[in-house]
């Protein structure tokens, strides 16, 4: 695929954060646009993709996969097809909120716990008063509630649907309901971004960001939600990724 670099079977976009934002802006501003499914993939997702056939199908049909991790950037340089920078779900969300505040876009937020969801949307409404918040729901819902959520999204037709239910679950949920989400223009998962916006989780200090150690800061400071794998277990994918994509260059 043009403008991408293949890392362990995933076609990662070479677009910068600015370029990605511009592409999504152009898509949203079109009067008629099909659903644009963007995936932000980190080394953990890249390793999971090696054995998860369903995830492979989802990623192969995505409209854009951005590099959400310094490991992806390093692997691309090792391959000789360098990606300039990471494009994380959190950074992209902030950029689109800013654009949406200027252009009057609408957003729907789905995921995280009820208290955090409510607080995050409250903060977003104050910081970006010109966007329309089409709706919000926490990520703990029954099948009946899910039906009502999908109906509400169909009715409100937000420009952007944001999911904060963790990866790869968010993207599997999106894929499952693609036909129902046809009136949404852009959809993507943002991991724990709403937790940061709500103040539940402190943002990574600049010092850690400059060293590209945001993953380590999260590992040491962010609590794990009930029912999720421990962060130490999840980060076990990192050495596998380093070996396969950077040392062995099996890419």
UniProtKB/TrEMBL annotation:
InterPro entries: WecG_TagA_CpsF
Stated name of the protein: N-acetylmannosaminyltransferase
NCBIfam families documented for this protein: wecG_tagA_cpsF
Keywords annotated in UniProt: Glycosyltransferase, Transferase
Organism the protein comes from: Paenibacillus wynnii
Entry's Gene Ontology molecular function annotations: hexosyltransferase activity
Annotated CDD domains: Glyco_transf_WecG_TagA (cd06533)
One Pfam family from the record: Glyco_tran_WecG
């Amino acid at each position: 695929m043009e403008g991408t670099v293949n890392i362990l079977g995933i076609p990662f976009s070479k677009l910068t954060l600015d370029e990605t934002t511009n592409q999504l802006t152009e898509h949203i501003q079109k009067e008629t646009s099909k659903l644009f499914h963007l995936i932000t993939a980190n080394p953990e997702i890249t390793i999971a993709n090696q054995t998860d056939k369903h995830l492979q199908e989802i990623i192969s049909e995505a409209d854009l996969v951005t590099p959400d991790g310094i490991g992806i950037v390093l692997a691309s340089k090792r391959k000789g097809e360098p990606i300039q920078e990471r494009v994380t779900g959190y950074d992209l969300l902030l950029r689109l909120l800013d654009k949406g505040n200027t252009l009057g876009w609408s957003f729907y937020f789905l995921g995280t716990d009820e208290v955090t969801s409510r607080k995050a949307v409250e903060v977003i409404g104050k910081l970006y008063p010109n966007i329309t918040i089409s709706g919000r729901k926490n990520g703990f819902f029954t099948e009946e509630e899910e039906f009502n959520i999908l109906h509400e999204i169909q009715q409100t037709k937000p420009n952007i649907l944001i999911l904060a239910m963790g990866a790869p679950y968010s993207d599997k949920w999106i894929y499952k309901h693609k036909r129902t989400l046809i009136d949404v223009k852009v959809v993507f998962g943002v991991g724990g971004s709403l937790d940061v916006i709500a103040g539940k989780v402190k943002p990574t200090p600049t010092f850690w960001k400059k060293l590209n150690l945001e993953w380590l800061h999260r590992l040491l400071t962010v609590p794990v939600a009930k029912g999720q794998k421990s962060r130490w277990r999840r980060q076990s994918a990192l050495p596998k990724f380093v070996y396969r994509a950077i040392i062995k260059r099996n890419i």
